[in-house]
């Protein structure tokens, strides 16, 4: 099942389907789960991963909130959505930087997902009208 299809079915969308925004929402959902998983794995690491855990949990929360706002198509709150996309992109970049500091495969995967999500959020910003 695809969130793209769900958004496209909304009566307020019609011909105005925003592919970039739907992709950003999809990747923000994935990023939230990847960050939550990375934080959980970091808890089990033998070294102090407190900062990485905090970064991942903060990023997961921001990504989840951004995804929820991005899929809402009834009425509009354009400024809020743009601010959330900008915030999500920046928080993802910060999380990617933190995760990239660690030589754990899970952190490297999380950093990759965060960078992808940040890029998709930035691509979506100018399309939100």
From TrEMBL:
Gene3D superfamilies: 1.20.1270.360. PANTHER family: CYTOPLASMIC PROTEIN, CYTOPLASMIC PROTEIN-RELATED. This is Four-helix bundle copper-binding protein. It comes from Stakelama saccharophila. The lineage of its organism: Bacteria, Pseudomonadati, Pseudomonadota, Alphaproteobacteria, Sphingomonadales.
């Amino acid at each position: 099942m695809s969130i793209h299809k769900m958004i496209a079915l909304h009566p307020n969308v019609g011909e105005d389907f925003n592919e970039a925004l739907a992709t950003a929402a999809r990747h923000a959902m994935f990023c939230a789960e990847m960050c939550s998983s990375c934080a959980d794995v970091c808890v089990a690491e033998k070294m102090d991963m407190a900062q990485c855990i905090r970064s991942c949990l903060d990023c997961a929360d921001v990504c989840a909130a951004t995804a929820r706002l991005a899929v809402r198509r009834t009425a509009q709150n354009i400024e809020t959505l743009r601010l959330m996309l900008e915030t999500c992109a920046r928080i993802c970049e910060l999380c990617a930087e933190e995760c990239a500091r660690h030589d754990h495969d899970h952190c490297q995967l999380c950093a990759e997902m965060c960078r992808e999500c940040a890029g998709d959020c930035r691509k979506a910003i100018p399309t939100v009208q």
